[in-house]
């Protein structure tokens, strides 16, 4: 029995190592075997063996001596996104409309495993280019979208997420104190809207509202733009009404279509 347990632990460790290598290639935007080994503080021979297996199965590609993530991950991501199909299908035309009308970047985020996942992004004619992309994972407390989701999760689930992922600082404006965050989340629940005041990206302001299904939070939508365009008056008179209209349609279509 002990031998079986040892074998299981070895296999689990092997999987963990492979995933760490995949994450390293993403973080480094491609790397050589030596660079990955240095980044992870692992033996070069072990990293090489894992990279060879990942390459053989199509999960990484090798250009000269540099390994990069392969497009097979795109297939997996597209399949996973399809599992959220109804929300994606009903939300996309509404996000496109808000992006066109405001000219800004519009996002849909959902929570999975305690992290925020950008499920959709639509760019308006004047939208800024930032580091977010479809499928990107973020800490929930760093974005208006994520705070919206956190605010409407059960208290026990919220505590589990914070215990697991912490409250790391992204900018000097990020909320990193648990009590301060809880106060902010209570205000979000009361007001029905959340703001990101340069809490993840300097110079970027964001406003988000929740999407519900059967009285449970299923995600959040937002408009993001530079401080120079996203002033309080514009948010209240133009952006929020458009977001609320879109959320209303998404919720109805999610339930009845």
TrEMBL record:
- Domain of life, per lineage: Archaea
UniProt-recorded name of the protein: IclR family transcriptional regulator
A GO MF label: DNA-binding transcription factor activity
Transcription regulation: is it a keyword of this entry? yes
Single GO biological process annotation from the record: negative regulation of DNA-templated transcription
Q: Which organism is it from?
A: Haloterrigena alkaliphila
Read off the InterPro entries from this record: ArsR-like_HTH (IPR011991), GAF-like_dom_sf (IPR029016), HTH_MetabolicPath_Reg (IPR050707), Tscrpt_reg_IclR_C (IPR014757), Tscrpt_reg_IclR_N (IPR005471), WH-like_DNA-bd_sf (IPR036388), WH_DNA-bd_sf (IPR036390)
In this entry, which stretches build a coiled coil?
A: 171-198
Q: Which residues form the HTH iclR-type domain?
A: 12-71
UniProt cross-references to SUPFAM superfamilies, sorted A to Z = GAF domain-like, Winged helix' DNA-binding domain
Alphabetically ordered keywords of this record: Coiled coil, DNA-binding, Transcription, Transcription regulation
Q: Where is the IclR-ED domain?
A: 72-256
Which PANTHER family does the record associate with it?
HELIX-TURN-HELIX TRANSCRIPTIONAL REGULATOR, ICLR FAMILY, HTH-TYPE TRANSCRIPTIONAL REGULATOR RV1719
């Amino acid at each position: 029995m002990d031998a079986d347990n040892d074998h299981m632990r070895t296999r689990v460790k092997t999987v963990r190592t492979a995933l760490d290598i995949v994450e390293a290639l993403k973080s480094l935007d491609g790397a050589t075997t030596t660079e990955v080994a240095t980044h992870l503080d692992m033996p070069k021979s072990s990293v090489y063996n894992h990279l060879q297996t990942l390459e053989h199965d199509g999960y990484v590609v090798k250009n000269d001596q540099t390994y990069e993530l392969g497009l097979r991950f795109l297939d997996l991501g597209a399949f996973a996104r399809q599992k959220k199909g109804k929300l994606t299908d009903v939300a996309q035309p509404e996000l496109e409309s808000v992006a066109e009308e405001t000219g800004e970047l519009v996002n849909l985020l959902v929570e999975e495993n305690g992290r925020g996942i950008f499920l959709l992004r639509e760019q308006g004619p004047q939208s800024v280019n930032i580091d977010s992309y479809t499928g990107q994972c973020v800490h929930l407390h760093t974005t208006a979208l994520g705070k919206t989701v956190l605010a409407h999760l059960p208290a026990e689930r919220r505590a589990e997420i914070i215990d697991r992922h912490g409250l790391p600082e992204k900018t000097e404006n990020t909320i990193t104190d648990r009590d301060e965050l809880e106060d902010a989340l209570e205000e979000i629940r009361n007001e029905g809207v959340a703001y990101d005041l340069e809490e993840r990206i300097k110079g970027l302001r964001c406003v988000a509202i929740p999407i519900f299904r059967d009285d449970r939070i299923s995600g959040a939508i937002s408009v993001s733009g530079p401080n120079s365009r996203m002033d309080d008056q514009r948010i209240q008179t133009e952006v929020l009404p458009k977001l609320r209209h879109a959320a209303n349609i998404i919720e109805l279509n999610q339930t009845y279509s």
